[in-house]
Write a structure and sequence with these properties.
3 domains, Immunoglobulin-like, 4-stranded mixed beta sheet, 52% strand, disordered N terminus, mainly beta, Methylamine Dehydrogenase, Chain H
Length: 458
């Protein structure tokens, strides 16, 4: 047994570690020599000496193992934490991810906890922040070890969306399309058409008319029918504009009895009708109204400002749209060529700015919109086959919107943030074009028209 133990110890001695253990072994040997003298060491048997060295080596190896184990089980505390963002903005419903960095990198416990100062404004889960409502909140991350913290200020804003409103008709029903989705204003019992749309704040106004009962001018506010006082036998509302608390509607009333047979250009202000004295006296109508400052501009068979017919205006022509930009009044419509052909025309301050067509084929300018230095006009021009082609002119340069295989028309134009929206029809389909790309609002299975477009961001 003793011999086996000696062999085992000797083997351990031969395979013992180095470093601190060797240093301890050397120190112990030196201690033996100091106690017994160098001669004592020399007098020891070889076997006993090997046994003694083995014991020393085993002791040194055990000491090294304990040092290693202590090093491996040592806890490295967290000294701090940071976030990849300190201040961010998101929309309601939007999300973003905050990423934490715990120091030091080799910290033993790197777990964290997330919290929001106002979860009704911004919530957080595992670093993912979600905007709940408008306001501000502070997102805090806290380390589980050491309670170290970092924060990020989050501002939540209302979600910004673009709403495109288009007024028109589908079959017998007046329709308001909102981002392509149809909202029917009537049930189709009586044929009704929507001709104009205007958005003011959260209120959406639509002007049109009902063809039943000899025809009656109509105005809807957020889908609810509003009263327009009429005295004529027939009336139509063709344009609506809202300025402050005042709602203006342009159109006409038709009178016929033993003494009268006349069209009267009419502007309704908050439902009260004002008949405009026109150039044709008993054959006048108003097609468009625009309010700028204290001035109410109306065009149709003439041009009226604040109810007075303006003399410095072409005596011949049909005018479909008015737009005011700064001190300039732009009017779109049609004049007549020497050959008697309608010419698409734009006026500025009563004089011709652009003849958009040359009179070779029938054409009309239906709407005008000025954005910066660009004058956009929507309308139509016949092709050689006699079909009308929906056309958008920008600074007198035409862009055809349809291929001419069916009669088509561009009826309204609106520009917002550089995007150009045009409403109209291609054959029986109601269509909205955005930057020249068509979106069909109807399938074309029945007759439909898109007559007016208005765009807001909110």
């Amino acid at each position: 047994m003793y011999q086996y133990f000696r062999r085992s110890v000797a083997a351990a001695a031969l395979n013992a570690g180095t470093g601190a253990g060797n240093q301890r072994k050397t120190a112990m040997e030196a201690d033996i020599i100091s106690k017994h003298g160098r001669s004592s060491k020399s007098q020891m048997s070889r076997g006993n000496l090997i046994f003694l060295v083995a014991v020393i080596t085993l002791f040194s190896a055990a000491t090294v193992s304990c040092d290693w184990l202590e090093e491996q089980t040592k806890t490295i505390d967290v000294t701090g934490v940071t976030l990849n963002e300190t201040s961010v903005s998101i929309e309601i419903g939007g999300t973003l991810t905050l990423v934490e960095t715990v120091a030091p990198e080799d910290a033993t416990e790197k777990g964290v906890t997330w919290a929001s100062s106002n979860s009704n404004v911004a919530s957080v889960q595992n670093g993912v922040v979600t905007g709940v409502s408008a306001g501000s909140a502070t997102i805090t991350v806290t380390t589980n070890n050491g309670n170290k913290t970092a924060t990020c200020q989050v501002t939540v804003s209302p979600k910004i969306e673009t709403f495109v409103y288009v007024a028109g008709s589908e079959g017998n029903r007046a329709v308001l399309w909102v981002n392509g989705q149809a909202q029917y204003l009537t049930d189709g019992t009586v044929s009704t058409h929507a001709y104009s749309v205007f958005v003011s704040g959260n209120d959406v106004y639509v002007a049109g008319f009902e063809t039943g009962n000899n025809g009656t001018a109509k105005l809807w506010r957020n889908g609810e029918l509003q009263n327009l006082a009429t005295t004529g036998n027939l009336s139509q509302a063709l344009s609506v504009y809202v300025a402050g608390n005042d709602v203006y509607v342009a159109g006409y009333q038709y009178y016929y009895d033993d003494e009268h047979d006349m069209y009267a250009a009419t502007v309704w202000r908050n439902g009260v009708a004002e008949i405009l004295a026109g150039p044709y006296h008993n054959w006048d109508w108003a097609t468009s109204v625009f309010v700028s400052g204290s001035n109410v501009h109306v065009v149709g068979t003439g041009y009226w400002r604040n109810g007075a017919l303006q003399a410095n205006f072409p005596s011949q022509g049909t005018w479909n749209s008015v737009f005011v930009a700064g001190n300039d009044v732009f009017v779109a419509g049609e004049t007549t060529s020497n050959q008697g052909t309608p010419v698409a025309t734009v006026l500025r301050n009563g004089t011709v700015l652009q003849n958009l067509t040359n009179g070779a084929r029938s054409a009309s300018a239906e709407a005008v919109f000025v954005a910066g230095s660009n004058v956009h006009v929507a309308g139509r021009e016949n092709n050689q086959q006699g079909n009308s082609v929906a056309t958008l002119w920008t600074n007198n340069q035409p862009q055809t919107l349809t291929n001419g295989s069916a009669n088509a028309n561009a009826t309204s134009v609106f520009v917002l943030d550089g995007d150009v929206y045009v409403s109209g029809n291609d054959g029986n389909r109601a269509v909205l074009w955005k930057n020249g790309v068509a979106q069909n609002l109807t399938t074309g299975s029945g007759e439909a028209r898109a007559n007016s477009v208005f765009v807001v961001v909110r």
